[in-house]
Amino acid sequence: MGSPEKKVPVDLSRCISLDDFQRQAKPILGKALYEYVASGTDDEQTLSENRQAFKRMFLLPRMMRVVSDIDLRLDVFGQRLSMPVFVSPAGVHKLMHPEGECATARACAEAGTLMGVSQHATVSLEDVAAAAPRCARWFQLYILKDRELTAGILRRSEKAGYTAICLTVDSVRFGSREADWRNNFNGLPPGVTLANYPTQDGYNDRVKDAWDQNTEKLFDERATWSDIAWLKSLTSLPILVKGILTAQDAVSAVEAGASGVIVSNHGGRALDGSLSSIESLAPVVKAVRSVPTGANVPIFLDSGVRRGTDVLKALALGATAVLLGRPMFFSLAVGGQEGVQRMLSIIRDELEAAMALCGCQRLQDITKDLVTDFREGG
Ligand code: FNR
Predict the structure, then answer these.
(1) Which of 22, 41, 64, 202 has fewest C-beta within 10 Å?
(2) Nearest ligand 1 atom, CA 266
(3) Residue 377 lies in a domain
(4) 4 assigned to some structural domain
């Protein structure tokens, strides 16, 4: 179990929306692997809310503005990117396609956008960098019980040219995805490894245990905000905190020295019942801007983004950019590098069309008055 079951050739031109990739990926991946990616924790309340919350929010478009020259480019931590839509750091790309993270990195390089590379990648962080040197890359880190190993991985990522560290803080334990239990899906097929871990010292066993929900053997359950200072003592890279849903935690992250915040509930795969990411965003933005050092801290969002209009809504509420998780997996399964490229170009076109229809020529023109927001900044 754990590899795409059938090689079903897909005509990529039949993928018109991001959800089409998910539909097309289903027969390719087979039930267990498809559900491993698609499913969420427990009752999947948060998984479903991530989409529903976007649909409860409406656009208030402005007319008769010049939109003949739309510009989606932005600069983040000194890097120029082609659009405010990035790929979320997420593990195990080789379960979707034999080229794994290398194919995703090449697609992001072609699209001129940024890829988050997971600590749980199936290609080593150095090999991902070598596969697509032009790809803008952030490295996603978990704080492990083994602090030396954590520090070693962090140092390797800086050396390999990653431009920021995303510290994931919402998964000190993995959410229980009941679909995986029912399907007896327990991870990696022969020949696929979590390539950033050493092969000696029983790490494969500990990683295997983590898949079986015994994450306490792998992750440090005693990590606190003071560990941001520890990470900063090891690297000069900006540190983003991924998995923030409350104003209080956003303030703690910035006060602890984080250079950025990613509002996320791990795509509904961490705590079920937590608020959707889009409804968490405005209070986080307001709180971060109220911290003296927070005026220019970029705030990102993932979890549930599937349309150009979703991107526009998130930007209107103060996000600098959004990230995509499952659409990357499904497009990778459907068409490898080409699939991910097509997926990214679809959402790019959708965002451009949404901006034109809202009267926005540049990203700075996307302001709060373009959306109905029921939380009004908390
Ligand atoms: C993830 N995600 C994730 N996040 C992270 O910080 N490290 C990781 O290794 C992974 N691995 C992972 C695997 C799979 C199969 C999925 C679906 C997700 C979470 C990911 O970065 C992102 O937060 C969500 O996927 C965003 O939600 P959407 O776009 O999938 O709705």
Answers:
(1) 64
(2) 23
(3) no
(4) no
Total domains in the chain come to: 1
Pairwise pLDDT comparison (16 vs 374), residue with the higher score: 16
Our answer on whether the CB atom of 51 is closer than 6 Å to any ligand 1 atom is: no
Residue 122 within a domain: yes
3 contact partners, CB below 8 Å, separation of at least 6: 33, 95, 189, 192
Domain that holds residue 168: 14-370
Global pTM?
0.96
pLDDT at 62: 98
Which pLDDT tens digit goes with each residue over 132-166? 999 999 999 999 999 999 999 999 999 999 999 99
pLDDT > 80? residue 209: no
Q: Is there a catalytic annotation at residue 97?
A: no
If you measure from the C-alpha of residue 267 to the centroid of ligand 1, how many angstroms do you get, rounded to a whole number? 6
Q: Is residue 283 part of a domain?
A: yes
Q: How far, in Å, CA of 261 to CA of 249, rounded? A: 10
pLDDT digits (tens, 9 = 90+) for 177-189: 999 999 999 778 8
Decide: 215 in ligand 1 pocket, CB within 6 A. no
- CATH assignment at residue 119: 3.20.20.70
The CA–CA distances, whole Å, from 349 to 284, 311, 313 equal 28, 12, 16
Q: Which of the four pLDDT bands, split at 50, 70 and 90, describes residue 199?
A: confident
Kindly state if the Cβ of 304 falls inside 6 Å of ligand 1: yes
Which value does ipTM take for this structure?
1.00
